[in-house]
């Protein structure tokens, strides 16, 4: 086979990759679950390790030729154990959803009750949402946040006592306050449930010491590796000492649930290698600084948005994300703000807010995060400016209101998109965003 690089072999794909790079270079990635990986992580991810089959685990593979793959996986395992302080980890899950599904397979039988944060309240699909297999194969018992955006611990305990769940999830995709792991641990122990902490969003903050660790309180911990942890897409499942005490065979059960009895086949070895690199990076003093700066940035951004007259769920943040409550401008308006900000070079996502008067597809809030822009080196000074720009864009499109019927909505949103494409204010902000970005290069 002739040696040809991507541009020579497939110019169409090469151009699209380049276009995406340019979009990122001159825009602000502020979706809280995204980040910019290091060149070393990308090199490992794009390596020849992708070619190898290695079903099984180090020392116990089905195929030959895994001498070096075993070493890669062992390095990833050892680094994860050290970074989080746990006795056991499985580094093979392709991503967060299969990792969470493996936890169900390892611990429950179909029909068992499972408690998780309600999706519109900030919970994840895989924590028992009705449209996900976790909410149909198991008995879903949702819990909620209060009007003020904080988890309702007293109600959560009452729900647990009433439904006696076998497994309780603590973790979210849209929760801006510190997770009360200790209190959840006590509730799980009281009803004899497994406590599973899904720390996908905050894993990097936990390693950096910018968020409390769930390790003393949870039996199992799952995380993706591509959010604040700043690795490739992928996931980890960890078992704590507390988990092994509850069930000494828990680690073996998790391994089996990932492969062969679960949803996965051969591990993605290039991904495992890149996870190992990211974990090594995450254990440096620079990363500890980075994690703390993510939170500082989010808090300054929160103050800046509030000073502009915007309303935040729970009034601020303890972590890397903010939720702006757009109900003062009308219900279901998140879609307009998301698209207008995108047009202005600021990428965030529409999101439900607690007690959202609209729906997950047309929610009444937006979710903003600081991990990726902090990777670029932006600090408090830039957060104040970005907060002003975000507010300017929101006020610019505040008159757009979501129509009642599906047909009207389609027409209205089409017209809205036409209008924002030529809006001078959005163009002006986009120009300023691009100027700012020039001083903060991407890591690759
Ligand atoms: N899609 C992820 C997020 O954005 O939070 C969760 O899986």
Distance between the termini: 29 Å
Mean pLDDT: 97
CATH H-level superfamily title of the largest domain:
Type I PLP-dependent aspartate aminotransferase-like (Major domain)
Shape summary: globular
Model description:
There is one protein chain. The chain is α/β, with parallel strands linked by helices. It folds into two domains: 239 residues, Aspartate Aminotransferase, domain 2 (3-Layer(aba) Sandwich); 153 residues, Aspartate Aminotransferase, domain 1. The chain has 18 helices and 15 strands. The strands form four sheets. The protein has a seven-stranded mixed sheet, with helices on both faces. Strands 11-12-15-14 form a four-stranded antiparallel sheet. A two-stranded parallel sheet has the order 1-13. Strand 8, helix 9 and strand 9 form a beta-alpha-beta unit. Helix 16 runs antiparallel to helix 18. The chain is globular and about 60 Å long. 51% of the residues are buried. D-serine binds next to loops. The site of D-serine has 4 residues, from loops.
